[in-house]
Structures are given as structure tokens and as C-alpha cells.
Amino acid sequence: MTRARGLLAVLAKRHGLLFPAGALCILVNGRGFGPLWFTGVALVAVNLVLGAFLTFRQRPKGEREPVLLPVSLTGRLMAVNGPGTKVPSHTHGNAQTYAVDLLFTPAEDDDSAQAAPPSARFRPLARRPDAYPTFGTPLPAPVDGTVVAVSEGQRDHLTRTSLPGMVYLYLEGYVRGAGHPRRVFGNHVVLDVGDGVHAVFAHLRRDSVRVSAGDRVTAGQQLAECGNSGNSSEPHLHFQLMDGPDLALARGVPFAWRYRDDDGAEHVGVPEDFTHFTPVPEVPGTEDGARREADEPAG
């Protein structure tokens, strides 16, 4: 039974290919309800069933204490689409149950940093990614670990922050979701941080990744730069923990950070969406900010 479920999971990882194949059969069918039409419908149906199975399989089992570790970026940041507001924060698919998006947001009085351009409903339809302060921000490893997977080479596309751009983003996201997870995550690095926990850093800048699979990295070592590759509306860092190295099969793992809000108050958890905060770099009671179990739940 276990072997059969494992085989089904492997097939489910490639289920996205069935949808375009089925849609093509339906579109080119010119003889009404014939064998080609039924084949197309069957392929689309199997795609939906396998997709639902894979998402259900990636739902975390039971409660788990958040893993406390340093924030992956430095400076003044803002959390979006994070578990501090809702769980799942993204979706259970691709182990994104507790994922969070981080943007670099320098203070208004920081003349040394580039400010993000204002939001626009219609014009401009898109902007170059280098117009945003997060683009090109160095990404250091939060803790010691071993690189288990690297995906790079995808372009940093124009932003999709206008209303037409967001519509395009959702349509594009559906197409990307039908393929390999790397089409969604863009350029990314998967880091084994120990105890069966793996960290994912996604939407990285093309040609900025400085590590390879098998490399042993230390806390603070630069992995890459933040970019706008994959299914991304604007430059940001997508971060998540999971219980295995495979994005399509692992389950999400909750995490917590120590951070300071704009009022100067310190917290342990994950900031709510649109909260501006500054990471507290070291965790008291640990060696060099090493990872340990959090005393408080995320959020």
C-alpha cells in the first residue's frame, strides 16, 4: 500500500502536463463526442484529481512547535502573505502552508536607500524589477546548512502590480502551476538546516546564486540576491520551511523569528501581513543565533 501511494505521488508530481494535453485533445477534436474528445476530458479530470490528491497529501499532520531561527534578510522589512495572519498562508501545495513573502522597505527618512515606486492601477502597466529596493538585496544564509537543490537561469520579468498586471499574474500563475514547481518558485535554493528541516529561498535574481548543490554553508554566507523570477508580482523573497527536500512532496513546517516592530517592541513569532519590522539578529541562549525550538507559537 505504501509503495502504491508513493508511486501515485510520483505520478501526481507531473499531473500538470495532463491538463494542456487534455485541452489540446478537446480543441483539435472536430467530430463531436468521439474518442479524442473523451480522451481530452479524461486527461483533464485525472489532472484535477491528482492535483487535489497532492495538495491533500501535503497538508501538515498534527501540531508542531515552530522552529525559531534568524530572519533571512537584514534591514527594515515588511511581511506579506504570511502565517502571522492566516494558515495556510499561501496553499498546502508545494509545502507553502507557512510560507511568507518579504519585501525590503527602507524608512522614509533613509536617504541612502531606494524607495519603492508608488502603486498604480493602470499606468504604468509594468515596471522594471530594478525600480524596487528589494531587487538585488543580498540574501545570507540564516543558519549553517547544506545546499540540497539549486534552480537558476530564469529571467527577472517585469512587475505585475497594476490591475491588468494582476489579472495576467493569476493567469500566468495557473499556467506555471501546471508545470514543475521551479516555474512557480523561479530561481531558488533549498537548504538543509538539520533535524529533517529544509529552508526554501525563492524568486531569486538570475545569475546571482553563489552556491551549488552539496555545498556546506555557514550562517551569514551569501546565497544569492533577491529577484523577481517565477510567479512573482514584484521583487521579494519567498521563504518557507518544509520537512523534506522535495517541493512537490514535502509538508510545510512552522517557524518563528525574533523581530522588533517600528515602535521598538520585540516579538517572537511571525509578523502579521503588512507589518514593518527589523530582525533581531541573535537568539539569546543559543550559539551564534543557531536554530532552536520557539517558546511561543508563530503569530
TrEMBL record:
Domain M23ase beta-sheet core positions: 170-242
Transmembrane segments: 35-56
Superkingdom field: Bacteria
Pfam families: Peptidase_M23 (PF01551)
Keywords: Membrane, Transmembrane, Transmembrane helix
Basic and acidic residues bias spans: 288-299
Segments of this protein annotated with the region Disordered: 271-299
InterPro entries: Cell_wall_metabolism_enzyme (IPR050570), Dup_hybrid_motif (IPR011055), M23ase_b-sheet_dom (IPR016047)
Species of the source: Streptomyces daqingensis
Protein name (record): Metalloendopeptidase
